[in-house]
Design a protein that fits this description.
9 helices, 8-stranded mixed sheet, 552 residues, 3-stranded antiparallel sheet, alpha+beta
């Protein structure tokens, strides 16, 4: 579920309150900040234990409380000069038909960050942004709502479609997958099951208002316009944790001010969950300080080697069993290098959403299997897939149709998918009821796939009533063969019944009326509905009275 909130102010004292809480609590928070022109200030609170910055505390004691202003610029997405009208639709499920796995609130009037100047969003732009958020909401699981501060910026640098990131990182919280590792706050909240950052937003991003945007959600983006859903989907991905702390010194003190040095951890000595999976061409971890001291020139060089890889179980499986190449051009590009998929490898594939530049005319409404694998490796829990089994009782009496078709690995349904079941009886049968994980007699019916489910459609033989009369009542009688073959009084659907009219003395059979016509006697009737049939008898005198009526 995606909601839009009124103006939301971020407290200017939040950083200081967070520092106090870090000193006395067990949860540790790394608060986003800026450092454009000066060296970052790192404050380490040791609590009198004398631990070194890179050392781990005893297992029975919470890790030392740490706060730092981050030296990183926001992660950005650029406008690709290549025009490409590729259309990649939403995943097999639709956000409009599948229940969301996490709630997302979008604040379109945020406190600006990174020097942004924010203007008002148009209703069309807000709708497109909310749709992008709903795609992530249908994919990822979190019991804690995610709030996005979204700026409609008027002053982003030329060629920058948008930028953004997480508004905080936490480590050693309850439920953390790996200790001494920074997790983007939305991810940390999800894994801890609690709102670690309180009322503060989890993500900040800005899209440039100066581009020609396409606001539709149908993916029909024309050449010359940029698809807002695509760019918002990209930047929200960064805010959810698709970013690392690796940097190369560019003159702003990122890595001790030493030109060409690479570093990670924002001077805290702790990596992000994304950093855990970074490798060089030989498969060495970039966190291996025996090979790549932090900071060091070797680390800076490998980050510009065109040979940096993400190697995680889920990402590699989605990439055909191979490691995932990351964007690592020979010149370090702040905000682009390292925290994107390799451009040349993925720009023409279904995994192109998270490359560093997006083309006009393209619409990419699916993160792609590689990005989904990376998100799982860094800690996100994706919607579980469940199996739906349908059957009929008795066998051979009908069928069950399910819509939509399975949307997870071709045979299962993502958790939260709403499936419509329709029971179709074979000839001679009628739908009676549902049993198993569905109940009642409504047809069609719906179920929500929040577990493996087994549903049976129960059918019964369709029976119809045959009513026969004679007119006049003393004129004769009507016999039926065979006798009723359903519950003693009715006929199974499709039964052929032979009706014979027998006249009493002084009468003769004249014709059939009601659900049978003509003068044939005996006559056959097929029981495909309730039937009422009258045999009309006449005397010889009345024959001449009825005949003109019949002829008319």
């Amino acid at each position: 579920m995606v909601t839009e909130t009124a103006k939301y102010q971020v407290s200017t004292t939040h950083f200081h309150v967070g520092a106090l809480l870090a000193m006395i609590g067990f949860t540790e928070k790394l608060e986003l900040g800026m450092r454009w022109f000066s060296k970052v200030l790192v404050v380490l609170v040791v609590l009198g234990m004398g631990w070194g910055l890179n050392a781990s505390p005893p297992a029975s004691v919470a890790a030392p409380a740490t706060q730092a202003a981050l030296p990183s610029r926001p992660v950005q997405v650029l406008a690709d000069s290549n025009v490409d009208t590729v259309r990649i639709p939403v995943p097999a499920f639709s956000p409009t038909t599948r229940a969301p796995m996490m709630a997302v609130n979008v604040n379109f009037s945020p406190t600006p960050r990174w020097g942004d100047v924010c203007a008002s969003w148009s209703p069309q732009a807000q709708s497109a942004f909310a749709y992008a958020a709903s795609i992530w909401a249908a994919l990822l699981y979190s019991p804690v709502p995610v709030t996005i501060d979204a700026c409609w910026a008027t002053n982003l640098p030329g060629g920058v479609l948008g930028h953004g990131g997480a508004l905080g990182f936490y480590r050693n919280f309850t439920g953390a997958p790996v200790t001494n590792t920074w997790y983007a706050v939305a991810l940390a909240n999800s894994r801890s099951g609690s709102d670690l950052n309180g009322s503060t937003a989890e993500i900040y991003l800005a899209l440039s208002s100066t581009f020609s945007w396409y606001y539709g959600t149908d993916g029909a983006t024309p050449a010359g316009q940029y698809d807002l859903v695509t760019v918002a989907l990209h930047e929200i991905g960064h805010g959810l944790g698709f970013l690392g702390s690796m940097e190369v010194e560019t003159g702003y003190g990122e890595c001790n001010g030493i030109s060409g040095y690479g570093c990670w951890g924002w001077d805290t000595g702790y990596p992000t969950s994304y950093d855990l999976f970074a490798q060089d061409s030989a498969g060495n971890s970039l966190l291996n300080t025996g090979i790549y001291p932090n900071p060091s020139l070797p680390l800076g060089n490998v980050l510009k080697s065109n040979a940096v890889y993400f190697s995680g179980t889920n990402a590699n499986a989605a990439n055909g069993g191979s490691r995932v190449p990351l964007y690592a051009p020979s010149s370090w590009l702040p905000g682009s290098s390292y925290s994107h998929l390799d451009y040349n490898t993925y720009r023409y594939t279904i995994n192109r959403l998270m490359v560093y530049a997006i083309s006009s005319g393209s619409s990419i409404h699916d993160p792609g299997p590689v990005t989904n694998g990376i998100m799982q490796d860094i800690g996100w829990q994706y919607a579980t897939c469940y199996t739906l089994t349908t059957s009929v009782n008795p066998g051979g009496t009908g069928s069950v149709n399910a819509s939509p078709a399975p949307n997870c690995n071709g045979t299962q349904y993502y958790s939260g998918t709403i499936v419509t079941l329709t029971a179709n009886p074979n000839l001679g049968y009628a739908f009676s009821s549902w049993s198993g994980d569905a109940s009642g007699s409504a047809n069609p019916t719906t179920i929500t796939m929040n577990a493996n489910k087994s549903v049976t459609a129960n059918f019964v033989v369709q029976c119809y009533t045959l009513t026969t009369t004679a007119s006049p009542s003393g004129g004769g009688s009507v016999s039926a063969n065979p006798a009723p073959n359903c519950n003693g009084t009715q006929y199974n659907a499709g039964t052929s019944v032979t009706l014979t009219a027998t006249a009493n003395s002084g009468y003769f059979f004249f014709l059939w009326s009601g659900d049978l016509s003509g003068t044939t006697n005996p006559a056959n009737v097929t029981m495909n509905s309730n039937k009422t049939i009258t045999a009309i008898f006449s005397t010889p005198l009345n024959r001449f009275t009825f005949l003109p009526l019949i002829q008319k």
